[in-house]
Amino acid sequence: MSQLPTPVLDALTAIVGAEYVVTGAAACRQGSGDCYWYSPVLKPLLENKAADVIVHPGTVDELIAVVALAARERVPLILRGAGTGNYGQGVPMQGGILLNTKRLDRILELTPAAAKVETGILLKTVEQQARAIGAELRFFPSTLLTATAGGFLAGGSGGVGSITWGTLWDPGNVLGATVVTVEAQPQVIQVSDYQALQGVIHNCGLTCVIVDLTLALAPAQPWEQYALAFADIEAALRFAQALAYDEHVPKRLITALEWPLPSYFPLLVRAGASVEGKAQLLLQVVLDPAAMRARAEAAGGAVTWHGPHADYLRRGLWLVDYTWNHTTLWAMKADPTLTYLQDAFDPERLFEQVRLRKARYGAGVLEHVEFMQARGRIVPQGLSVVRHHSKAQLWELIAYCEEIGMRIANPHTHYLDEDSRWNGQPILDAKAAWDPHNLLNPGHLRAQEKMDTP
Ligand code: FAD
Asked: Atom 23 of ligand 1 has which residue's CA nearest to it?
């Protein structure tokens, strides 16, 4: 049963309709979780947390009325898209109203240059509609098929396409957002200034309620998909790095995987794309098969699978399903003692850092590297798959990675201000201005928790 007073529940029902109000304990628990269970540290902390009620507004007016009610009644308000976030930052820590945005799913404006969309639209829909007019998303998470646009803006960072376009923080990728403040009389604010957007991007539902957003698009490309095999991870990384810096090849995906990670992908094994004992590259590029074969062979590798452009978006094998954090998912399915780290290599020290870790941890750390750009620089972004024994062992590994000059975004904390992508002051300023009663997503800022503890 919901802990909220009956008049609050009645008011919510009056706003969105009984069909779109969920109060059952089991249903609330189910609708409150995100993908925090990727982390063996977060799982026991978050698995029993739930909202008191879940509402599904169908219009912006309904959303604003729910926000106003939460502000008037001083009830915690948690925003939810598809719930594919990995860090538990969408999990209600103190009950309250969980506002699911998925019915707000309209495309408001679409040109080859940009898409203005409501927050709850699936990124897949944006990509498909953009491609129909010769454009495509600049980049997207590997959860393209399930994630919402607003959830990506508020909880994501980058993904497939980031090798060319960078991340959400890079200028020109996010062109604007409409946000609602959490007040008894909510304000609707258009944010388009780059500085102000820093309080919206990756705010993890802490600063504002995003109603719509405008994402810059890219011209659509006829992507080819390739799987390549190399003798070892260093050979694969050398090829990947050269490709990442090659300005003549349009690219969307450059993923390097140490063996046995390729063995965890059943469909790729069946297709012959994963080869026993070999490191693997998964690529989406514009390069014809003969040229790719020649390049691979010159570097001592081989093309093991090629998917033509017709296979794009799941009409067949879609390599994206095995990259970014999907790699971790397959690894955890194959071996539940595995988890992951988000560990950026220093581009100048990539091979040295790989060797140092290998010498210390052996098969306890399996290299998974996504090549991407961030703030104009090509970065080998690790999503290393690691064997987990205890929190202390994970923390020791993180400390060692930092000691050898790697940059860790710890995916085993749900506190936004412990994430290396924490934007600091712009988020705090936005929170103070737009959430004056501190109702948005409480319990996910370590600094605030310390202040609240007597
Ligand atoms: P949710 O999980 O619902 O929400 C994410 C955060 O945003 C929460 O804190 C929530 O409170 C907040 N939020 C949601 N909507 C609003 C709103 N309207 N206003 C304010 N706050 C809001 N992420 C990447 O960046 N790149 C990847 O490649 C990637 N790969 C992934 C692969 C797997 C297998 C999984 C499980 C996750 C991956 N993620 C990745 C994380 C996640 O899928 C993406 O960031 C995704 O875009 C989140 O969208 P969502 O709709 O699921 O958001």
From this structure: 156
